[in-house]
Amino acid sequence: MVIVNIKPLSVNEVWQGKRFKTPKYKEYERAVLLMLPKIKIPVPPYSITFEFGVSSKLSDWDNPIKPFQDILCKKYGIDDRDIYKGTVSKVLVKKGQEYVKFKIE
């Protein structure tokens, strides 16, 4: 394992000024909140696993994490600061068959 001795930079420190949700994100958030099932959430600390089915090879593996994770936190009443481990994978699928799988442990 490679170690780089520097404090990790928070996404909140990356941009200047306030960031606003786009209309596309607001629509996505509404849709996902309606689709998410009722599940039993364990006690923290959490481990989260994501699998993103994407239709473009150009999709970055990490881009969908934060928006989807924020929606999960909103739905299930968890705080993402209590997530101590994450596993993410990207799967290439045909256009129109995109998906997100997740597990909170």
From TrEMBL:
GO molecular function: magnesium ion binding
BP-aspect Gene Ontology terms: DNA recombination; DNA repair
InterPro entries noted in UniProt: RusA-like_sf
Protein name: Uncharacterized protein
Species this chain originates from: Myroides marinus
